[in-house]
Design brief:
The longest helix has 11 residues, at 4-14. The chain contains one helix and twelve strands, in the order H-E-E-E-E-E-E-E-E-E-E-E-E. The protein is globular. It has one helix at 4-14; strands spanning 18-29, 32-33, 40-47, 53-58, 61-66, 73-74, 80-85, 98-108, 111-122, 126-132, 135-140, 151-156.
């Protein structure tokens, strides 16, 4: 689901829930994968009471929908996509066992109607997730400083303590 209202609706259905697992789709080539951000294709946040929330990016936009993870697949000479539980040291591997307390939207400053990412507040940390130029940007606490000229963070959906921006 794209668009501000659809993303807000889905995030509101996740806030207050414990993340019990994270599944990632990652690109592998010759039995190796790139780093945390460069190999990530899609990911799913699993919580009790909801279908998994799929997060995927395209260009400078982020899309969310409740859907089950798909099966991995072979791409011949171009490698393969593996769909597996998130594993350390990747940032997403640190989410299971923690409660999502709040969320804020991250907007592209050039097209404010465009939702480029989400800032998630957990009981242990904040995690900024954005799609910029068809690449993932994942960072603890807030958007990376090098993206500050292009991205801005909106208000917390539930107005948890602290500022989202």
């Amino acid at each position: 689901m794209s668009g501000r209202s659809g993303i807000v609706d889905l995030l509101c259905r996740m806030v207050g829930r414990d993340i019990v697992a994270v599944t990632e789709a990652r690109h592998w080539y010759d039995d190796t994968r790139g780093g945390d951000e460069e190999s990530l294709i899609h990911f799913w946040l699993h919580s009790r009471g909801n279908a998994p929330l799929e997060v995927h990016g395209r260009g400078d936009d982020i899309f969310l929908e409740f859907s089950e993870p798909y099966a991995g697949y072979d791409m011949g000479e171009f490698g393969q996509t593996r769909v597996e539980p998130a594993a350390a040291p990747d940032l997403l591997a640190h989410l299971p066992g923690h409660r999502l307390l709040d969320a804020a939207l991250i907007y592209n400053k050039m097209a404010v109607a465009s939702v480029s990412g989400i800032l998630l507040r957990f009981d242990h940390d904040d995690l900024a997730i954005a799609s910029v130029g068809d690449e993932w940007v994942l960072r603890r606490k807030t958007i990376a400083p090098e993206f500050a000229p292009y991205l801005t963070t909106g208000d917390w959906l539930r107005q948890s303590p602290g500022t989202a921006g």
